[in-house]
């Protein structure tokens, strides 16, 4: 009986010691303390984006001309703007706009880039040449310059900002997925699926795409930060969100005329952009280290 119990315990220990890819990724990610803090901060931002408008003490367009450009106080934690509106309330409510623009733009760019990268890497030849030359053309322009040109053509507004940011995000994902597709399309399991009569679409999305998912996740996370920064830059230049929208870049632009007398008008919107972009970049670095199978403890 004792031997049976010992062997049973040994089997249970062996089962517990089995490391799945997900558990191994979580274990590696937990070791990245900065990335864990960044993840919790981003979760906090998402919660604020969902329920923030119900928690703020003032309306985003609640004017108080007796409290114009007041500094931080108990009544107004982040001070007020040039119309006496509460900056804390506007920054909290602007979280939803900035996150929505960044996430939606990168999502569109990731989907388009992934499809183009799969097609170019799998079929090669003329299809690959056309896709890669388009990507090279887009890469020839700095991201912000390309976004400004697109918004100048389409017109200002958050919808056009999403399109502009998505366009310059697409080639990065296309190249990333194409390189992974080239590495996987001649692998044994893809050849086996082809010999069994699987369609090209099934091979691409069922067998090749999962192999590129870790790289896509890392690139997606890091791209969100740069997209929020680009969208804020366009709003700062007057080509994105329009007044009275409480978008962070627009808040920064509105406060720049009062920097010498009322620093808080630019300090707090700038900090919101800085901390959000920094968190997404740190999270991307942590995910890259956690998802890289070559890195061992």
TrEMBL record:
Q: Name one GO cellular component term.
A: plasma membrane
The residues covered by the ABC transmembrane type-1 domain are 95-284
Q: Which UniProt keywords apply?
A: Cell membrane, Membrane, Transmembrane, Transmembrane helix, Transport
Q: Where in the cell is it found?
A: Cell membrane
CDD domains under this entry?
Answer: TM_PBP2 (cd06261)
UniProt-listed Gene3D superfamilies: MetI-like (1.10.3720.10)
- The principal location of this protein is membrane
* Pfam families the UniProt entry points to: BPD_transp_1, OppC_N
The record describes its membrane topology as: Multi-pass membrane protein
Can you tell me where the transmembrane regions are?
Answer: 35-56, 97-122, 134-155, 258-284
Please indicate if the UniProt record lists Transmembrane as a keyword: yes
Job of this protein: Part of the ABC transporter complex GsiABCD involved in glutathione import. Probably responsible for the translocation of the substrate across the membrane.
Q: Which family does it belong to?
A: Belongs to the binding-protein-dependent transport system permease family.
Protein's UniProt name: Glutathione transport system permease protein GsiD
What organism is recorded for this protein? Candidatus Caccovicinus merdipullorum
């Amino acid at each position: 009986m004792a031997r049976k119990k010992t062997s049973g315990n040994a089997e249970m220990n062996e089962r517990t010691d089995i490391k799945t890819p997900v558990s191994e990724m979580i274990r590696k990610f937990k070791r990245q303390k900065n990335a864990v803090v960044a993840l919790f901060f981003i979760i906090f931002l998402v919660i604020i984006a969902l329920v923030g408008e119900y928690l703020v003490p003032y309306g985003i367009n609640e004017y108080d001309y007796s409290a114009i450009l007041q500094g931080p106080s108990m009544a107004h934690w982040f001070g007020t703007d040039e119309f006496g509106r509460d900056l804390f309330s506007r920054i909290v409510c602007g979280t939803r706009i900035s996150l929505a623009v960044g996430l939606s733009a990168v999502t569109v760019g990731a989907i388009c880039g992934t499809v183009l990268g799969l097609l170019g890497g799998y079929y090669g030849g003329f299809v690959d040449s056309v896709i890669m030359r388009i990507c090279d053309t887009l890469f020839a322009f700095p991201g912000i310059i390309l976004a400004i040109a697109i918004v100048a053509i389409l017109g200002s507004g958050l919808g056009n900002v999403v399109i502009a940011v998505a366009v310059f995000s697409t080639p990065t994902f296309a190249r990333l997925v194409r390189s992974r597709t080239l590495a996987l399309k001649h692998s044994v399991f893809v050849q086996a699926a082809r010999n069994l009569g699987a369609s090209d679409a099934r091979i691409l999305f069922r067998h090749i795409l999962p192999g590129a998912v870790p790289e896509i996740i890392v690139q997606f996370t890091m791209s969100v930060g740069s997209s929020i920064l680009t969208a804020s830059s366009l709003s700062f230049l007057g080509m994105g969100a329009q007044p009275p929208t409480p978008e962070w870049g627009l808040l920064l632009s509105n406060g720049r005329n009062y920097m010498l007398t009322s620093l808080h008008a630019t300090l707090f919107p700038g900090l919101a952009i800085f901390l959000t972009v920094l968190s997404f970049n740190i999270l991307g670095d942590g995910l890259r280290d956690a998802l890289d199978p070559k890195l061992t403890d």
